[in-house]
Amino acid sequence: MNYVMPVLLVAASLLQSTAANRIEIRNVKPDLVLLLIVIGTLLYGSRPGLVWAFVGGVAIDLFSGGPLGSSSVALMAAALVVGAGQRTLSRFNVVVPLTATALATLVYGAAYVGILVVVEGVTSWLALQGIVLDLVRPDLPAPLWANLFWPTMQLIVLPAAFYNMGLILVATPFLNRAPTMDY
Length: 183
Known about the structure:
It is a single chain. The chain has one domain: Arp2/3 complex 21 kDa subunit ARPC3 (Orthogonal Bundle), CATH 1.10.1760. The protein is 68% helix and 0% strand. It contains 6 helices and no strands. Helix 2 runs antiparallel to helix 3, helix 2 runs parallel beside helix 4 and helix 4 runs antiparallel to helix 5.
């Protein structure tokens, strides 16, 4: 699985950046890479989950044009949240993958939006100093930049949590058949 997962993550990040627009519901796209991280972390634990989160985050940033490393940090935070319950809770209970996906989506979204707010603040401050950098190219609607964090959490991240939970519910029977390994 250590060799297959990076390939799956790169493919999922490419699909998420290009073809996911075809399966969006009310302007909300599924987080395919995040779902793979949740599944991988539930199956194999926090250590591999963190590595895969880093790889998947770099792939997302390369394909989406976001600040390099921001998706990695956000996905790693989500993997830590999911990994906390990996040993103590059974993945065979449908509540575990659903809860892990909901929490991972909220943590990932909050961390990513928080990073974008910080980067935007830094670039705005630099612009006031006469230094112009084009670091942020968010795909969020322009009105959200005035008051970014809470509107984005309400309009994008929370609905994405429900979308991702629906997808993980479909994937749970396959998740329960996957073999696990201890690292």
